[in-house]
Amino acid sequence: MCIFCDILKNQKYVVYENDLVFAILDEYPVSKGHILIITKRHAKDYFDLTKPEKEAVDEAIIWLKNTFDRMYHPDGYNIGVNNGEVSGQTVMHAHVHLIPRYKGDVDDPKGGVRGVIPEKQAY
Ligand code: AMP
Ligand code: ZN
Questions:
Q1: Domain locations in the chain?
Q2: Within a 10 A sphere around the Cβ of 70, how many other Cβ atoms?
Q3: Where are the beta strands (DSSP E) in the chain?
Q4: Is residue 36 exposed (0-12), middle (13-18) or buried (19+ Cβ within 10 Å)?
Q5: How far is residue 121's CA from residue 123's CA, in Å, rounded to a whole number?
Q6: Distance CA 5, CA 7 (A)
Q7: Atom of ligand 1 nearest to the CA of 3
Q8: Closest Cα to residue 44, out of 97, 83, 101?
Q9: Nearest CA to ligand 1 atom 12
Q10: pTM for the model
Q11: What's the gap in Å between 41 CA and the centre of ligand 2?
């Protein structure tokens, strides 16, 4: 059983949807508003997505960003996708993390997503 397919089937926690994707708040958020944009089709990872699915992801990202700007007033965002176990993917159903960022949420944010290899984040 796939946890994201199950969530879609039960319509539990779904906070946004369009024809091809839906979004849920991350159960273990790294910041206020950390959300996952997930394909309705059980795709493996980002590289498995069709062009319409990627467009639907983008539409969701823009809608959610505008909503969080109004709700939480973050100072920036990270957008991230883990593809494959070695990259850190734990749920093998394609999803994009949208992570609002707030001034002072870490001591030194420099390098951002470079932090996937922690000792290489700063440069
Ligand atoms: P990844 O490591 O990129 O595969 O991301 C999986 C994400 O799914 C993690 O950030 C988890 O916190 C999140 N997650 C796992 N199970 C659930 C769930 N039942 N509901 C919401 N988020 C979940
Ligand atoms: Zn699935």
A1: 3-108
A2: 8
A3: 14-17, 21-25, 35-39, 76-80, 95-101
A4: buried
A5: 6
A6: 6
A7: 19
A8: 83
A9: 28
A10: 0.97
A11: 7
For the record, the structure tokens of 50 come out as: 């069709």
* Angle (nearest 5°) at CA 45 between 40 and 51: 65
Q: Which of 12, 15, 27 to mutate to test the pocket of ligand 1 (most atoms within 8 A of CB)?
A: 27
Each residue's pLDDT tens digit, 46-88? 999 999 999 999 999 999 999 999 999 999 999 999 999 999 9
CA of 33 to the centre of ligand 2 (A): 22
Closest C-alpha among 16, 42, 34, 51 to residue 97? 34
The atom of ligand 1 lying closest to the CA of 28 is 12
Q: Please identify, by atom number, the ligand 1 atom nearest to the C-alpha of residue 92.
A: 4
Q: How far is the CA of 91 from the centre of ligand 1 (A)?
A: 7
Residue type, 53: E
Q: Is the pLDDT of residue 12 over 90?
A: no
Q: Which CATH superfamily is domain 3-108 in?
A: HIT-like (3.30.428.10)
Ramachandran class of 29: left when φ > 0, alpha when ψ lies in -120 to 50, beta otherwise: beta
